[in-house]
Automatic annotation (TrEMBL):
Keywords: Ribonucleoprotein, Ribosomal protein, RNA-binding, rRNA-binding. Part of the 50S ribosomal subunit. Contacts protein L29, and trigger factor when it is bound to the ribosome. The gene is rplW. It comes from the Bacteria. GO terms for cellular component: ribonucleoprotein complex; ribosome. GO terms for molecular function: rRNA binding; structural constituent of ribosome. This is Large ribosomal subunit protein uL23. NCBIfam families: PRK05738.1-3, PRK05738.1-5, PRK05738.2-4. The keyword Electron transport does not apply. PROSITE patterns: RIBOSOMAL_L23. InterPro entries: Nucleotide-bd_a/b_plait_sf, Ribosomal_uL23-like, Ribosomal_uL23/eL15/eS24_sf, Ribosomal_uL23_CS.
Length: 105
């Protein structure tokens, strides 16, 4: 019997995908086989794809990235700037899913 070859989990994959980004809008994307993750600012689309495939054992169909620039805010009269956040919308192959409420393997 031929065994499905799994991607090797590299320690660097954990540095690429930081955490799932869970909002109302991102939960609506799950109907279209898409998951949104917060990723490292220097992560590229191929790195994100390889990390998600290795960590969760799924097939990634596409990756789109967004960089949300940090806003300038004020607190007690003092100005500060929120950090920039890079998000990746990962589209999975048909019939596959990731449960972000449980841990990675």
């Amino acid at each position: 019997m031929a065994k499905k070859q799994e991607a090797v989990v590299d320690i660097r994959h954990y540095d690429v995908v930081l955490k799932p980004h869970i909002t109302e809008k991102t939960t609506l994307l799950s109907e279209h086989n898409a998951i949104v993750f917060q990723v490292a600012g220097s992560a590229t689309k191929p790195e994100i794809k390889a990390a998600v495939e290795a960590l969760w054992g799924v097939t990634v169909k596409g990756v789109n990235t967004i960089v949300s620039k940090g806003k300038t805010k004020r607190w007690k009269g003092e100005a500060y700037k929120r950090s920039d956040v890079k998000k990746a919308i990962v589209t999975l192959a048909e019939g596959q899913s990731i449960d972000v409420t449980e841990g990675v393997r």
